[in-house]
Design goal:
The chain has 245 residues and is mainly alpha-helical. The protein has one domain. The protein is 76% helix and 0% strand. It is built from 13 helices and no strands. The longest helix has 34 residues.
Length: 245
């Protein structure tokens, strides 16, 4: 339920923001570099899409999802290992790869539930305050958030399977999140960084502005590929590690 509160709150705030017509003028006076870093130099917060892109999809929505996926995926197998319960789990007649896949499926379903609550909260608020918000486009934007979470969750899962240390795997994944955010933002401002932006998951997450224009299939496939590669690496690493205590 908590995941529904933030989107509902920002959607509910929009009519008040819209009434402050001077706010867009204030935004226009900001240096283009500032606007480009956080969203786009063409950002128009006078529309529901522009406002939600700035207030929700630039930071809050990814933060809510990544806080869950990075921690839960990083602890999927590593948490069991640190608690000493992994031996009991592996004593069951199931292959190691299945343990990893089932753990991945569990955090994947959890991520879907979070995103579904976010959509429901935003949709309910939009209906309540009478905002003309395309709920289909909203779903596409949240699918992009979902894929971002799964991509970086795949990294955390792989690191946890390789190291058996949940805080190490979550910590490294968090650093990748921060580095990716700044690479994408600064790459829009610094010419020599721009060619490296596709290495950032945030570049693919926000590509094509899914809230306004729909999900970009190519970028979505990149995020899916990262998630799948993370799962494959996790399975291979977990299969090959000596887990004897």
């Amino acid at each position: 339920m908590f995941a529904a509160i933030w989107p509902a709150m920002y959607v509910g705030l929009y009519p008040s923001i819209e009434a402050m017509g001077s706010l867009q003028q204030m935004m226009d006076k900001l240096p283009p570099a500032i606007r480009e870093f956080f969203a786009s130099s063409e950002l128009n917060i006078g529309t529901p899409e522009g406002f939600l892109n700035l207030e929700l999809f630039t930071f809050i929505a990814p933060l809510l999802v990544l806080a869950y996926t990075v921690v839960v995926a990083g602890s999927a197998t590593a948490g069991e290992e640190e608690r000493g319960t992994l031996d009991l789990l592996l004593a069951n007649p199931i292959p190691r790869w299945r343990v990893v896949v089932e753990k991945a499926a569990a955090f994947g379903v959890g991520t879907i539930v979070i995103v579904a609550f976010m959509w429901a909260g935003a949709a309910a608020a939009a209906t309540a305050v009478g905002i003309d918000l395309d709920l289909g486009r909203l779903a596409e934007a949240l699918v992009s958030v979902l894929l971002l979470g799964l991509a970086l969750g795949g990294l955390a899962l792989a690191l946890g399977a390789m190291t058996g240390r949940r805080w190490l795997s979550s910590g490294v994944s968090l650093m990748v999140v921060i580095a990716g955010f700044f690479l994408n933002g600064l790459g829009a401002l610094i010419d020599w960084l721009d060619p490296w932006r596709p290495l950032s998951p945030f570049y693919h997450y926000i590509a094509n502005d899914p809230l306004s224009n729909g999900l970009d299939p190519g970028s979505a496939l990149v995020l899916v590929a990262w998630a799948v590669v993370g799962l494959i690496v996790a399975v291979i690493a977990f299969e090959r590690r000596d887990l004897a205590r």
